[in-house]
Amino acid sequence: MKDDKNFSNKLAWALFKAAALSILLFFFLSKLDTIKAGASMIMGVLMPFIIGGVIAYILKPMCNFFERHLKKKLPRQAHALSIVLALMTAVLAVGALLLMVIPSLFQSIYTIALMIPDSLDDFSEWLLTYFGGNEVLSNYISGLTGELSSTLTNWLSGSVLPGLQTLIGSVATGVGSLITLCKNFVIGIIVAIYLLLGRKKFAQQAQKLVRSIFKKKWADAILEEVIFADRMFSGFIGGRIYDSLIVGVICFVGMLILGIPYPGLVSVIVGVTNIIPFFGPFIGAVPSFLLILIVKPVKALIFLVFVVILQQFDGNILGPRILGNVTGLSSFWVLFSILFFGGIFGFAGMLVGVPVFAVIFDVARKLMYKGLAYRERQEMEANAGVPEEGTETT
Length: 394
Hints:
Elements: H1 2-30, H2 32-70, H3 78-131, H4 135-169, H5 171-197, H6 199-213, H7 216-258, H8 263-273, H9 280-295, H10 297-323, H11 331-345, H12 347-384
Helix pairs in contact: 2-3, 2-5, 3-4, 6-7, 7-8, 7-10, 7-12, 8-9, 9-10, 11-12
């Protein structure tokens, strides 16, 4: 009788929870647009703090590195000087990157605009040199080249120039957004400095807050998972940046040796996109190949072979040496995390999808082990209460 009553109570409580969750889910779905608008407004207000947090997290390993080496000679000033040196290093790195990209980008656009007709003629002559013996192919190539030339001319005069005029006309509209972005970035740098200055104090306060809310068992588990997440993000992102920097330098030197045009711009594209695992090499190689193909087709083929060799070296030798198996994920889950988070959050999701999924995977794995241990313990207790065969209970 008592067991039936307990079962009824449990069933009623389970039904109540299911009904409450259903009502909450229906309310959430019916107010989804309002929730999105509210979340967007909150994100806009908190954007300087989000930017500052990202900057502080990226600069934190650099600050720790400088502080460790400055403590020996300047123990009192080491904390503040490490932040100054980290900021200066970041500014110099970004400035050098922009100096490499912006002039090359403008030069590439200007050169391509001037060389499109001549490049098409040269490309046609190159094709005819190798395939000119075939009359059908020769006629097809000549017709295709003329059609491409007229199409590009019409596109430049009919679409690009009016589009540029529209873009210039809409600059005034985008000035407000640009000012807001600059304001958020400047405030974000200030927030990052405050976060870096008080990073140890903030960490201690967060630890005390967790221990004050949760029991010791759960607090230890949460803090352990936070440490694991920090190790995943810092190790993966820092390793990918370091690996991509080396790949970009190797690409730049190799292109200079091989005489491939636009070494600065292409090396930056290859290096930056290489941060994205799995798809990064293809994302960077395709536009770079097309850019070189317009100017020098033969060099484009050489570049394609060079990039394939470079990516094989990075994927099999350089990357594993720098990163190792930081995340512990198989290739399938790496691919899944990039596609899933990239589909939801775009480029940013592709960058951080792997470490985020590694943390989720680790939490799920620990919960699974705890569940298995709990089931085994239940089975052992149940078996302990069953009498052996051949014995009688009194």
